[in-house]
Amino acid sequence: MFNFRIKHKAQNSQARTGIISTSHGKINTPAFIPVATQATVKALTPIQLEEIGFEAVLCNTYHLYLRPGAALVKKMGGLQKFMAWNKPLFTDSGGFQVFSLKNGLCEVNDDGVTFKSHIDASKHIFTPEKSMQIQRKLGADLIFAFDQCLALNADYETTKKSLERTHAWAVRSLREFKRLNKDKKQALYGIVQGGRFLELRQKSAKFISSLGFDAIGIGSIFGDPKDESRKIVEHTLKFLPPGKPKHLLGIGAVEDIFTYVEMGMDTFDCVLPTRLARVGYIYIRPESGGKPENKFRYRITTSKFKSDKKPLDGHCDCYVCQNFSRAYLHHLFKAEELLSYTLATYHNLYFFARMMREIRESIEKDKFRELKRKWVK
Amino acid sequence: MFNFRIKHKAQNSQARTGIISTSHGKINTPAFIPVATQATVKALTPIQLEEIGFEAVLCNTYHLYLRPGAALVKKMGGLQKFMAWNKPLFTDSGGFQVFSLKNGLCEVNDDGVTFKSHIDASKHIFTPEKSMQIQRKLGADLIFAFDQCLALNADYETTKKSLERTHAWAVRSLREFKRLNKDKKQALYGIVQGGRFLELRQKSAKFISSLGFDAIGIGSIFGDPKDESRKIVEHTLKFLPPGKPKHLLGIGAVEDIFTYVEMGMDTFDCVLPTRLARVGYIYIRPESGGKPENKFRYRITTSKFKSDKKPLDGHCDCYVCQNFSRAYLHHLFKAEELLSYTLATYHNLYFFARMMREIRESIEKDKFRELKRKWVK
After folding, report:
1. Measured between beta carbons, which residues in chain A are less than 8 angstroms from residue B323?
2. Crossing angle of helices B338-364/B254-263, nearest 10°?
């Protein structure tokens, strides 16, 4: 089951609110989707995630395929049951992770990708069909077509060739998906590629749009350099069907979220708030000095916080900020206590959940521009 | 503020229920006290501990003295505020940890103990007075006198000498405690030592009882060999004032708890359920096959649990058992996910909290013997 309804469109930008409906419930958009790589958002229970206010998470197909394996997850009743997350769930296609493998662990041809496991160096093959089969077994509500990811600095010829492959794989992904998805349990996102070339992005946007995916993702936007990334996304969006939900893969910097919400993007996934939490980076709101220059964060492990009685963020109303001091978090990190990861992750994700809630509210009140000015000038 | 009231005495044993009252609330006894070494029960939030049902935790003075330091904790408003645990709290004296240091990191004389930090090898001295001063700054409700700990196999002469020192330190601990505790905020446990020699234990019990501590701890009982440990505790208890709360330091095996509750012990602290959780040992109830022979536990990391749909313990009603399978926990441990520590710790502590609740209920219904038979035959 899948449906997307646009609730409200901003008057002076492309920003919009909407609701993605799945058989596991609804996602209010624009939404930030935390990453649960190995069927867990690191250091948090599903109850804590719900308490923070998230309506969906995204798991990584590459990791789950290798361990514990898609067949096992299926036997356990699917990912949602396995990880006790009874809400909407995304899986990615496995492509990005496979193409991120270093040291010659990955070889690509038109059929698919041969790669070696980062766990035991065993050899595996992903094809578009295989990715669909794995994602079917994992059983997420929202899944992605198998694509080839390139570095943003790849040259025109390389990007063009790769794009042709991605398009052929999109067709094969969709065909296999339709064969498997007779019960309409899942929805499939096509992915637009094309590197840093506006002409290729335009071509890709048109082609992917023509295939009739349920929704569209934009891939290989790495946030930097910001101007170039923005131009690419803005240009791409002109050629995508306005009525379909659009996901920006791997984007999660605060400024980027404001930029791309304004352009009409609906969902974002990124490991930034969770990964940075585990090395002690704490997000702070604009009222507390968060701004693009400091990337809305500071590092709690710095010695100046050793005896700081204040909460992580004086303007945050999360469980962590209501109960613990910077000094306590500093202590937990210095003592390498497991609770440090839980509390920092909790706070950072709360920061994102609340920011997205405020973004949605501002759009519906036609005040998104004001909110954006407050956050990123 | 400190008070102990015996609620109910068993008819055919020394088992009893009671209530220890402190300025941070009450502890229903017999109680198991989880260990929060560095001001955190590893991998759990204070809210989760409350949810599990604990009324008190115990922090380690040695660790907190070294990091973050007692003065800092005091500045932060005391341990309870620092760690957001607004319930009764114990600290130990630091003695056990100091005497457990290996590789010549510890030297003792009649004045106190010189030791090197396990963190940076810096040199420190603990004396009875210093231990009281540190514990005062940390600010727990229930604190312990500074004593010398010995291996249970120490010979008579060594044990006798050490006991004389422990007794002199008990007098000094109490004197310093009284000087610091004019506001009656804290209560002090004296500690009985005497190794494996009944005669010395008896002497110690009488001497410590004569000093007028608020409560009594029994130290250096390591659980094994069981018969010897039992005889020592049983003999010791004959010479302790029945109306005072009695704590058995470091004891936490299921059978031992039943044994010593039956003898009249009121509280226990032990790292066993939490430490074992982090390497994948899962406690199970007798209805699920838990028994002295398997130490009421199994190891979830064993490959036979890879695709086991059952909960950790089919007769457990904790959050973990209500929501997750053995296969999921197995996966989390294999993938070295942080959530593995949280969920396994949660379950193991719930096992102990519920067992203690059942013990208390059975005593009040004069059915402790029946309960004990069910658990340990």
Report:
1. 46, 84
2. 30
Residue B102 pLDDT level (bands cut at 50, 70, 90): confident
Element (H, E) at B217: strand B215-218
Contact B338 A338 (CB under 8 A): yes
**Helix A198-210 and helix A156-180, axial crossing angle in degrees, nearest 10:** 10
| Cβ-based neighbours of B69, under 8 Å, separated by 6 or more | none
* C-alpha distance from B326 to closest chain A C-alpha (Å): 10
pTM above 0.90?
yes
**Closest CB from B45, B75, B82 relative to A339:** B45
Residues pairing with A17 in the sheet? A8
Helix (H, G, I), strand (E, B) or coil at A255: helix
- Out of B46, B327, B337, the one facing A38 most closely (by C-beta) is B337
H/E segment holding residue B262: helix B254-263
Q: Indicate which of A48, A63, A306, A323 best probes the interface with B, i.e. most B CBs within 10 Å of its own CB.
A: A323
Query: Does the structure show a pLDDT above 90 at B103?
Result: no
pLDDT tens digits for range B129-148: 999 999 999 999 999 999 99
Q: What is the DSSP letter of B336?
A: T
Residues of A classed as catalytic: 92, 269
ipTM: 0.97
Q: Around B135, how many Cα atoms within 13 Å sit in the side-chain half-sphere?
A: 37
Look at B84 and A46 and tell me if their CB atoms are within 8 Å.
Answer: no
B353, two tokens:
């909290």
Q: Do A319 and B75 touch (CB under 8 A)?
A: no
Distance (Å, whole) CA B34 – CA B346: 11
Q: Which stretches of A93-127 are DSSP H helices?
A: 95-100
The size of the A-B interface in CB pairs under 8 A is 109
SS3 A197: coil
Mutation choice for B interface testing from A312, A337, A350 by most B CBs within 10 A? A337
| Owner of token pair 């039956």 | B262
CATH 3.90.1170.40 fits B2-270, yes or no: no
Please check whether residue A117 touches B, CB under 8 A. Answer: no
Give the domain ranges of chain A. Answer: 2-270, 277-352
